[in-house]
Specification:
three-stranded parallel β-sheet
Length: about 60
């Protein structure tokens, strides 16, 4: 029987732009589960569309 390897998980703050956004998207593309912190409720949909799990920091 093949051994299951758990997916790695990370929380990224500042995931709506700049370095945080680039890192969150890259890690997600590499198979990580990414919880993406954001401040504005309107940002949640864009993060979800990018394959990330939005996590409000407020």
């Amino acid at each position: 029987m093949a051994e299951l390897t758990p997916r790695r998980t990370v929380v990224i703050t500042g995931a709506t732009g700049g370095v945080g956004g680039a890192l969150a998207r890259r890690l997600s593309a590499d198979g990580w589960i990414v919880y993406a912190a954001h401040r504005k409720p309107a940002d949640a949909a864009a993060l979800r569309d990018a394959g990330l799990t939005p996590s409000s920091s407020t």
